[in-house]
Amino acid sequence: MTNTILSVDQLTQVVSIGQSDQTTTLLKNISFTVQKGELVSIVGPSGSGKSTLLYCISGITRPTGGTVAIAGINPYQLKSNQLAAFRRQTIGFIFQQYNLIQSLPVFENVVLQQRLSHQQPQRAEIKQLLTKMNFAGQIDGPVATLSGGEQQKVAIARTILTDCDVLFADEPTGALDSASKAIIFTYFKGRL
Ligand SMILES: Nc1ncnc2c1ncn2[C@@H]1O[C@H](COP(=O)(O)OP(=O)(O)OP(=O)(O)O)[C@@H](O)[C@H]1O
Ligand SMILES: [Mg+2]
């Protein structure tokens, strides 16, 4: 049985810019594999393509060239409903911009994935998780008025609750203070 959870082969992303025929190459011939339990950091300056790469290798954005296999499955060969189910079951993604639903309170944002997967959220478990993360906001309050770091904790808590095989995190601690970072990274290591 293979231990490879993610396999990326000759991944290339070329996008058109403006109204013209002009294109720009954001990613070029990237190949690597990730084994189960491995923790991988993608490091680069702002604008170097880290988010673009994460979107391409996680089934969010179809690359213009190369192949991606997550748990042996090429997400870009799935039909849209199969892809949605595959992503729910296999992939966790913490977005750089949090991707919270502003009209829903903190609790509903945290349990969103669970609801989509028809799981019953456990309020006590969620309260405990948020407390562990030093979340200072109100569990039934709006997310819109939370600070950047608090919103990030809500986004992280949502992903921690899912039972994913691969967790993609796009600068997940950028808005957090250093004390929170240590806790969260420890948690991630345990889960991956
Ligand atoms: N669809 C697109 N069309 C044109 N250019 C794009 C597109 N998507 C991303 N870019 C450009 O590609 C470059 C890489 O963007 P990306 O968001 O992947 O960088 P990043 O490494 O994540 O940066 P940061 O550290 O600031 O988050 C940027 O210059 C961005 O403007
Ligand atoms: Mg980015």
UniProtKB/TrEMBL annotation:
Segments traversing the membrane: none
Keyword set includes Nucleotide-binding: yes
A matching Pfam family: ABC_tran
Keywords (A to Z) from UniProt: ATP-binding, Nucleotide-binding
PROSITE patterns associated with the record: ABC_TRANSPORTER_1, ABC_TRANSPORTER_2
Domain named ABC transporter: residues: 12-192
Entry similarity comment: Belongs to the ABC transporter superfamily.
Name of this chain's protein: ABC transporter domain-containing protein
Organism: Latilactobacillus curvatus
